[in-house]
Amino acid sequence: MTFLITAGPTREPIDPVRYISNRSSGKMGYAIAEAALDAGHDVILISGPVNLVPPRNAKFISVWTSDEMFGAVHQFADSSDICVLCAAVADYKPAQVSPVKIKKRNAEFSLELIPTRDILQSLGLQQDRKFLLVGFAAETDYLEANATKKLGEKNCDIIVANDAHIGMETDENELLILFCDGETKKISRAPKTFLACELVKIFSNSQQKRLTKKM
Ligand code: CTP
Predict the structure, then answer these.
(1) pLDDT digit string, tens, across residues 72-111
(2) Which residues contact 48 (CB under 8 A, 6 or more apart)?
(3) Are 111 and 144 in contact (CB under 8 A)?
(4) Torsions phi, psi of 78, nearest 5?
(5) Using a 6 Å cutoff on CB, does residue 72 contact ligand 1?
(6) Would you call 205 a catalytic residue per the annotation?
């Protein structure tokens, strides 16, 4: 099967030297890419800026902004079997990007932000999609309730939820996996490399099941 995986943060420029971003390390997405390759799958890894070496056998697409990530995902989604959107896409971007460095002034300064496009939701809107759609939810509170809401709103097949306090910038995580048929599965705290192998098995089994149901 072909896995499309997004990973890492996006950077939304303010001016030529500044941007808005977040603390995502990209480790979970890269671990899933490695695990999928090890299991014999093809991988398209679409990554925001991170300090990680891309897996050698993946098709690697490097992006910076949410708009670049949106474009790359839509270019390859329909030719993929499983889309795993693990990236921490910025929710807002500056309404205007200054072409020159904004100079410091001795006064208050505010930035107008506008929402970015939701990549996961845009794929969920494709009624006739053939690929399995997996989203992630990093939450600091009400983990299960917030993740259940995302599963419905973004019309995904699976949401992998985790506590942002545990997962951000670390090598470990603890997962709650929600399936669209109401099933749930918990994987307790473990290295991201171990979790990635488990997730790859779960995703490929789910896609197999989905395909047999449709036949
Ligand atoms: N996502 C996306 N495009 C966006 C924002 C999020 O594809 N513009 C995807 C992420 O890759 C992840 C899922 O949506 O798979 C949930 O992301 P998350 O940041 O947890 O949720 P948000 O929808 O941004 O909601 P909130 O920040 O309010 O929790």
Answers:
(1) 999 999 999 999 999 999 999 999 999 999 999 999 999 9
(2) 7, 8, 9, 10, 11, 24, 26, 63, 64, 69, 87, 88
(3) no
(4) -65, -20
(5) no
(6) no
